[in-house]
Amino acid sequence: MENLSQEQITEKAIIYSALMLHDDEIKVTSEKIQNVLKSANIQFESYMVDMYVRFFENNEIGNLISSGGSVGTVTTETVTADKEEEKEPEPEPEPESESESDDDMFGGGLFD
């Protein structure tokens, strides 16, 4: 682990913490992961823990294990995309009624 950056060490520690909690059938939460990291003296930023917890909420850990982790990776783009999906879709514009056709708007048709 000498060649790993502090961020990479933190990422691995978060993932291992989530796996430990999952193995003990404990719900993975930010608070529980932070407690594991603190007891292991791992330096971390809380936003990183939150980012991974959000990923694990959207992707069942058991499924990630059985799929070999091929579901994807966690990035800020992943979390942003998840937040965008949660927003309610904008209502579709209502179709124009027949009385508001182009002919009516301009005073009649071309050949009237």
Automatic annotation (TrEMBL):
Residue ranges of region Disordered? 65-112
Answer whether the UniProt record assigns the keyword Cell membrane to this protein.
no
Q: Which UniProt keywords apply?
A: Ribonucleoprotein, Ribosomal protein
Where does this protein have compositionally biased stretches of type Acidic residues?
A: 87-105
Q: Name one GO cellular component term.
A: ribosome
Coiled coil spans? none
Record carries keyword Ribosomal protein: yes
| Compositional bias annotation for Low complexity | 66-79
One Pfam match: Ribosomal_60s
InterPro entries attached to this UniProt entry: P1/P2_N_sf, Ribosomal_P1/P2
Q: Which family does it belong to?
A: Belongs to the eukaryotic ribosomal protein P1/P2 family.
Q: What is this protein called?
A: 60S ACIDIC ribosomal protein P1
Taxonomic source organism:
Anaeramoeba flamelloides
